[in-house]
Amino acid sequence: MLAVAAVIAIVSFVLYKSKSQLFNEKMKDFELKIKDYDQKIKDGNRDVEQRKKEIELQIKEELFEIEQKKKEVVLHGKEELFREKEELEKEIKEKEKRLIQKEENLDKKLSKLEIQEINTKKIEEDFSLKSQKLDELLEKENTELEKIARMNMNEAKEVLLNKVENDLKQEYVQKIKEYDEKTRNDSDKLARKILSQAIQRCAVDHVVESCVSVVTLPSDDMKGRIIGREGRNIRTFENLTGVELVIDDTPEAVVISGFDPVRREIARMALEALVSDGRIHPTRIEEVIEKARNDVDQKIREAGEKTVFELGIQNIHPEIVKTIGRLQYRTSYGQNILQHSKEVSHLAGIMAAELGVNIKLAKRAGLLHDLGKALTHEEEGTHTVLGVELARKYNESPKVLHAMACHHHDIEFETVEAVLVQVADALSAARPGARMEPVENYIKRMGKLEDIANSFPGIEKCFVMQAGREIRIMVQPDAVNDEYAPKLARDIAEKIEAEMEYPGQVKITVIRETRATNFAK
Question: Distance between CA 282 and CA 435 in Å, rounded?
Fold first, then answer.
């Protein structure tokens, strides 16, 4: 038991000793570390002092450099001011020198002017003396002349003035004559130049149009179907369209003859549709012709819109556009009026550009100048008057109306554009191949025959056939009875004999047809 206690005591002592020794070692290490820290602090303080000294030295050096630069700047500024001062003093001296020189020059000029003034006074005195002597001499001469010519001064002046006036008048008249001749020659040259340029820039290939249309058939058997039983199909077709179908030995072709291009076009389209469809009888003929009329109206409207678009004319009323399209189916001496109007518009615009006047006005008036020719079949009056009235109705400008009204010299020209429209109209009409006189006479004769027939009451439709040798008249059955029909034909024949000259005979056929229509419901 004691041994165990002794062992424990020994172990405890050993442990105590070891701990004490370990504590002492740690204390020594701690003291060493403290010494190291103190040394580092001392070294750091020493470094700080050293750095502080270096910074102070650097600041002193920089202050010294700043002071040096300041001295240099001050010195440089003084030198610059001194140099500028010298330059200013030099410039002032030069200006003073120039001023002194100018003063000397002015003194010299003043001296010269004084000398000239003295000389001028002497000259004036001499002149006044000479003038006085001259007046005395003139007075003596006038006195002598009055004695010789027995005329006083006023009479002599009047004679002299009359002579000078006559001489000046002759010279004035001669100058005016020379200027007039020169102006006329120059204007002729300029006009020829402008016209030649306009003609060259307006090359067209449209020539005289024919008064017949040809429809091609698939076979000659179709001719019999077109004629129909006892000719009822061809008779219905001719009565509804107002044209003549010429069916002869020409292989696979039917000729449509008629002076009115609109009727001829309707007949051509209708006949082509009937031939293509194959069903040819009176009822079908009426349907197809009505459709063809609507199609032609559409083509007329499209032709007018296309023409206006091509010419670049804007803000034109739709009714005028439609009337322009109808000109496609009108001719003058065989020349298509729509093509003619387009030519006139182009030519007038080109010449207006050459002369520097209103191009748009010239082109617009050129297009509309023959507008009335689309209405002459329907209303009374010249095409010029009808066209102007229609254009005025749809608010065309007064300048356009004036150009339209005077393109046939009906009134005096007031604007350059009106003259250009008249010249362009003459150029287009005079173009080789554009017109043919006999065709125009033929068309006028056809129109006159229709006008005579339509002048009687009760007429529903009237068609001139066979180149004017026959007139077919459709009467209103309620207004004209069977007994009055022969008298109507005789009255029309008598009026034609009285008002027209024509070769051969004209056959008048009055047709009265009564239809009763009802519907089964």
Answer: 39
Instruction: Give rounded-to-5 percent helix, strand, coil for the chain.
Output: 75, 5, 20
Token duo for residue 448? 């006159």
Let me know: does 256 contact 271? Beta carbons within 8 Å. yes
What does the chain come to in residues? Answer: 521
Strand 507-512 vs strand 470-475: parallel, antiparallel, or unpaired? Answer: parallel
Fold of 206-283: Ribosomal Protein S8; Chain: A, domain 1 (3.30.1370)
How far is 183 from 165, CA to CA, in rounded Å?
26
pLDDT digits (tens, 9 = 90+) for 441-474: 667 777 888 888 888 888 888 888 776 778 888 8
First to last CA, the chain: 151
Are 156 and 163 a contacting pair, CB within 8 Å? no
Q: How far apart are CA 345 and CA 386, in angstroms?
A: 19
**Structure tokens, 435:** 């017109």
* pLDDT tens, position by position, 208-248: 455 677 888 888 888 888 888 888 888 888 888 888 888 88
For residue 507, the tally of other CB atoms under 10 A from its CB is 13
The torsion defined by the Cα of 24, 25, 26 and 27, in degrees rounded to 10, comes to 50
168 token code pair: 């000046």
Quick check: helix, strand or coil at residue 319? helix
CATH superfamily of 312-435: Hypothetical protein af1432 (1.10.3210.10)
Question: What beta strand segments (E) does 406-492 contain?
Answer: 459-465, 470-475
Domain ranges of the chain: 51-148, 151-201, 206-283, 312-435, 446-515
Q: Beta partners for 462?
A: 473
Cβ neighbours, 10 Å, residue 58: 10
- Structural tokens at position 113: 């002017």
Q: Is CATH 3.30.70.1350 the classification given to domain 446-515?
A: yes
Phi, psi of 214 (to 5 degrees): -120, 130
Looking at the chain, the whole-number percentage of residues with pLDDT higher than 70 is: 81
